[in-house]
Fold this sequence. Notes:
Layout: H1 2-11, H2 13-42, H3 45-65, E1 72-74, E2 94-96, E3 103-107, E4 112-115, H4 121-130, E5 133-134, H5 146-151, H6 159-162, E6 169-175, E7 181-184, H7 190-195, E8 205-212, E9 214-215, E10 219-227, H8 230-242, E11 249-256, E12 259-268, H9 287-292, H10 294-297, E13 300-305, H11 306-310, H12 331-337, H13 345-350, H14 353-363, E14 365-372, H15 376-386, E15 392-399, E16 414-423, H16 432-445, E17 449-450, H17 460-466, H18 470-478, H19 488-492
Parallel strand pairs: 1-2
Antiparallel strand pairs: 3-4, 4-8, 5-9, 6-7, 6-8, 10-12, 10-13, 11-12, 11-15, 14-16, 14-17, 15-16
Amino acid sequence: MGNLLENILINYRWIFVCFFLLPLSAIYNVWFYARNWLIFKLGSAPEKHSKRVRDIQRQVKEWQTAGCKTPMCTGRPGWLTMSLKLGQYKKKLHQINLPLMDVLSIDTSRQVVRVEPLVTMGQLSATLLSQGWTLPIVPELDDLTVGGLINGTGVETSSHIYGLFQHICVSYELLLSDGSVVTCTKNNEPDLFYSVPWAHGTLGFLLSAEIRIIPAKKFVKLQYTPSYTLDDLIKKFTYESTRKDPHQFVEALVFGPDRSVLMVADMTDQLDPKKINKIGHYYKPWFYKHVETFLRKGPSEEYIPLRDYFHRHTRSLFWQLQYIIPFGNNPCFRYFLGWLMPPKVSLLKLTQGETIQKLYEEHQFIQDLMIPLNNLREAMGVLHDTVKIYPIWLCPFLLRVEPGMVHPKQDNNQMYVDVGLYGEPQVKGYQAVRDTRKMEAYCRKIGGFQMLYADSYMTKDEFCEMFDHKLYDKMREQLNCKSAFPHVYDKVCLNAQP
């Protein structure tokens, strides 16, 4: 009976998703984008921001008056985040409401945009592109928030040039535990500035951030190069990631041990009209399925609208939707219901229930492992033997020598790779805790890192070995955070969850 129930919940969840979650997601998106467009056009966001900050300060003062009995956290429900795990720490903390979701200003003379932390990548890319600008790094999925990308991390196919999302940030406006507001930059309060990324909101509440912007063009020229051996892929991928005159965007999708497609792209306003492919149209094949066709077609190139490129994996949530709607890439489904895709991840989490959540924890491996480029060949073998998940997303990024929790072990900038694994392991005898801990240990051994949105089973000592806590601990002490905010380990690692 138990196996039958599990089979129904997993294999027939598409019925609930298609007939309930997809329409609800579409209605929410229409409301959300209309609201944000109106507020931005009316220019009311900065004034509203000041009022919201005062209200947040009031909440912190009330917490102080009540005796600071429990540490604080944001009041945003865990199911609203993009992470598939539901952190339990909020249940035992004092929650502060932070309704900060607007683009505040675009300063083209300084080439920065000022935004609140709940602004999403879909919202921000649409706003900036309408003005002829873009972020240097646009993390893939529409619903990723600026706050999540700063307090956690973000990476994209331009990161081999610009680094992680934190490296394009100019300033952070924070509310500290004493209720004061401070703006930190590399030159003003640099220790605090470098401590914010990866701290997951455990030094203060992020109120706004200034982020670099660059001029945008209308299209990208995207070139596909298939490889039929792993060694050939590693050679080509390493060259494109480290060349002195790099393409603006580099990534690879690995479909099997000896089947992969390398992609490089550049923004352009000059194009061949015969080669335009508007992959963002709802009826188009899921992008990873489109990429896979070049294993048969051979090397090719296309011109893709810039925003379509930025959010190319959004409709299929990379390839996670194949597990929820197995026929989602079918042409009939795309033409009739593709315009509703994707369902909101937050609604998927809210409605999944404990049984489905447990099944996903036990049978899905959702991780981004950040490893040195020099170790990529070895890492691919380790991952194949341990989990055997395909496709795999490879995205190179420059890890800078800067203070904070994440930096190279050496004294110079290093090229790393984000290895994204999202799916059901195909190895026999897979055990979630055992094999995730094996991957964590491997990352620590080679000087790599684990993105903390995903399940982590490290002990606190192992966590401190992976991430440099010296500056973080210094700022926690200096800002009296011990009683005001939980330690980052207590927020992100499952071994610390009640």
